[in-house]
Amino acid sequence: MMIVCLLQISPLVHAEAILQNQAVNGGTINQNIVFIDVNNHWANDAIYDMAKKGIISGYEDSSFKPEKSITREEFAKLIALTFSINLQTPAEPTFADLNPDKWSFGYVESTKEFLTGYYPPKGKPFFSPDTKATREDVAVALVKTMGYTTDDLRSSSTLGRNFSDVDEISYNLRDYVAIATEKQLIGGYEDSTFRPQKPITRAEVATLLFRVIKSSAQDQADGPSLEVTVPEKTESGTFYVSGKTHRDAKVQINDKAVSTDEGSFKEGYRLEKEGAYEIRVTTKLPSGKTTTVTKKVTYQVNGPDLKVDNTPDTVTKGSLTISGKVKKDTNYSYPTVYLNDEKMYVSSWDGTFSKDVKLAEGENTFTVKAENEAGKETVVTKKVTFSSGGPELKVNSIPDSSQVASIKVSGTVKDANDSYPILYINDKKVYMYGGSFSESIRLEEGENTLTFKAENQNGKVTVVTKKVTFNVNGPTLKLNATPEKTASKTLTVSGYVTDKNDSMPTLKINGKKVYYTSYASGSFSEEITLSEGENTLVFEATNSTGRSTTLTRTVTLETDAPVIQVSYHPGSTTLSYMTISGTVKDKNDSYPVVYLNDRKIYCSSYDGTFSEWLDLKKGANPYTIVVSNKYGKTATVTGNVYRVDR
Q1: Among 453, 457, 447, CA closest to 430
Q2: Engineered SS bond to 234: which of 239, 485, 500, 506, CB 3.0-4.6 Å?
Q3: Residues 6+ away with beta carbon under 8 Å from 332
Q4: Which domains does the chain have, with CATH numbers?
Q5: Which is nearest to 42 in space by CA: 185, 191, 199, 201?
Q6: What number of other Cβ atoms are within 10 A of residue 556's Cβ?
C-alpha cells in the first residue's frame, strides 16, 4: 500500500471531556437536589456529587435510601452513564434471561465486557439482572472499565496482605479484586475482611463511582504504553511498522486499523516515490484512553557504493595516500570518482583508486565523491590534521612531595623528524644519551616547579610541568635512657642525631654545643654536672636550614650523706689520752669537713682518713664525730671511753 506524506488526523477526545459530559442531565447541571436521609451519612458528598451529575437519583419521597442494595442491571446502567458508553441493542440478545424489551437491555449489552454474565458449560449464558450486585462484581467491573488487565497487577500477595477472607473471593476474579485494591478503587473493612459476596449498597456504589471519576480525572492523560519501530530510511521503498501495546488495545496506523496478537503488531508497506513520510500509530483501550506515536521514514535511493580506506586523524608527515574502492552500478559500469573535485583513476579490474596528496600545516579536508550515470552521488569526507608536532617527551614518575633536598628525575625524548632533540629542565640544558635522560635536581623549601622542555630542529616544542613540594623537617634526635633521679652529681647522657639534608647538624645541651663521638653515625656522649634538686636538660639539634628538634629531660639529684667508719678502740683504758681514727667517704665531695666534739680536725683528701688525740679524764669520756659535705648532708658517730685507775 502507499502511504501519503504528512497525513492529517482528527484531534483525540480526552477523557476529561467525557467525564465533564457525564455531569450534564438534559443540558443543565442539577444543583437543587436534596435527599432527606443522607445529611449525616458518611457518603453524603459522593451521593450528592453523583446525583448532580445525573448518574444516580433518589426516590419520589425525596429519599435516597443509601443502605439499600443495588441490582446487577441497575449497576450496569450506572457504569454506562458514568463512562458515557454508547448503548447497543443487538437484534439477538446475548443473555437468555434478558429480552430486548426490558428497560435494562441496552445497558447490560453495552457493559457486558465489564460486568460479565454467567456462562454455564451447557446452555445459553444468563445475566441474572435482578440479582443483587456484590462487592466483587463491582470491583471487577471498575477495573475492566478503567482499562486495567491482569498484567497491571503489581504484587501477587496484595490480597493476602490486606484481607483475611481471600478464600471467599471467586478464584478467577481475585486478580481483578487485587488490582482494584492496589488502585484504591475499593477497600475492605476495619476487621481486615473484603466480604466479596456481600451485596453492595447504593451509598457504596455512589462512593466508588465518585472515586473512579476523580481517579480518571487525575490520570486521564495516561494512555496505554506504546512501542513503535519504524526505520528512519529505506532504500528499496519497502519497510515494516512494528510495535507492542496493551493486549486489550486496538491499533491504527495512519487511521487504518491493523491486527494485533497479544498487543504486538507488524505491518509491511511499499512507497512509490522518494521523499519523507509521516507514520502515525494510535492505540486505544476499551476505556477510551489513547496513545499516539508519530515516526518519520525517508525513502531515498542511495548513490554508488563507495568505501574510502581509513585515514589517521593526525599525521606528522607532509604526505598521505587517499585510497578506496567503488562497486559497479546496476548497469555494470564503475562510477566516476573525484577527490576534491579532481577526477581520479579507477581500476577497471576491481574498482580501486589511490592517490598521494600533499598536506598543509593544520587541518586538511578531503572530499571523495562517486557519481554514477543516473546522477546519484555518494560523498565521503575525511579530515586529517598535519602537525610536525613537538618531540615526544615522557617524564618518569616524580613524587608530589619530598623531605630530601635533592631528587633525581628521568625520562625519554623521541622525535620522528629529529634524531637529536634538545631537552631543558628549568631552562638548563640536560645531557641525553640514546634519547634518555637522568638528572639530579636541588629543591628549595616549599613548592618547586620543574619545567621540562623538549625542542626539535623545526622549533617545535613539547613542555611537561611537574610540581614537587620540599617539606623540610628538623633533625631526628634520639636520646638513650636517662634516670629521673640520681645520687651522683655527674650524669652521662648519650644518643644520636641524623638529618636527611645535613650531615653535621648542630647539637646543644642547655645552650652548650656538644661534639659528636662519631660524625658518621651522629652519636654523642656528654657528661653533665648536676645541681642538688631538679635539673632540666634541654637537647636541641639544628640543621643547615634552621629547622630544629628539641627534647627535654628532667633529672633530680638527691645526694647521700658522707659515710664515717671509726677504727677500733678499747672501751676502757688507764691512759690519760687515746687516739680516735677512721675514714670518711663521699662520692660527691672530695673534701668533707670532720668535727670531733665540735672541734674541726684534719681529714686527708687523698684517702679520707683522720686521726686525733682525745684527752681522757677519770670516768666516762663521751665523744661525737660529725662529718658534713658541701651539699649540707651530715653523718654522725658517737662513742664513749672509760678511764679507770690502775
Answers
A1: 453
A2: 239
A3: none
A4: 226-299 (2.60.40.10), 306-386 (2.60.40.10), 400-469 (2.60.40.10), 476-557 (2.60.40.10), 563-643 (2.60.40.10)
A5: 201
A6: 14
Q: Please name which of 81, 201, 76 lies closest in space to residue 135, comparing C-alpha atoms.
A: 201
3-state helix, strand, coil in the chain (%, to 5): 15, 40, 45
- How many residues are recorded in the chain? 646
HSE value, Cβ hemisphere, 13 Å, CA-based, for 131: 14
- Report the SS3 class of residue 44: helix
Helix (H, G, I), strand (E, B) or coil at 603: coil
Question: Nearest-CA neighbor of 45 among 189, 199, 185, 203?
Answer: 203
- Dig out the grid coordinates for 421 from the structure: 632533540
Which tens digit of pLDDT belongs to each residue from 568-597? 888 899 888 899 999 999 888 888 999 999
Longest dimension (CA), the chain: 175
User: What integer pLDDT is reported at residue 214 of this predicted model?
Assistant: 76
Mean pLDDT estimate for the chain = 86
Record the cell numbers describing residue 638, joined without a space. Answer: 658517737
The DSSP line for 205-229 is: HHHHHHHHHHHHHHSTT----EEEE
Q: How confident is the model at residue 430 (pLDDT cuts 50, 70, 90)?
A: very high
Spell out the residues 6+ positions from residue 412 whose beta carbon is closer than 8 angstroms to its own.
392, 393, 394, 435, 436, 437
- Label residue 257 exposed, middle or buried (CB < 10 Å: 0-12, 13-18, 19+): exposed
Q: 174-182 and 135-145 are packed helices; what angle lies between their axes, rounded to 10 degrees? A: 70
Average pLDDT over residues 183-196: 91
CB 323 within 8 Å of CB 353? yes
Q: Name 256's bridge partners.
A: 253
Q: Taking the mean position of all CA atoms in its chain, how far away is CA 129?
A: 61
Residue 280: predicted pLDDT? 93
Cell numbers standing for residue 494: 648519650
Question: In the 8-state DSSP scheme, what is residue 505?
Answer: -
CB under 8 Å to 111, separation ≥6 — which residues? 76, 79, 80, 85, 141, 145
> Would you say 373 and 362 are in contact if contact means Cβ atoms under 8 Å apart?
no
Q: How far apart are CA 219 and CA 238, in angstroms?
A: 38
pTM: 0.36
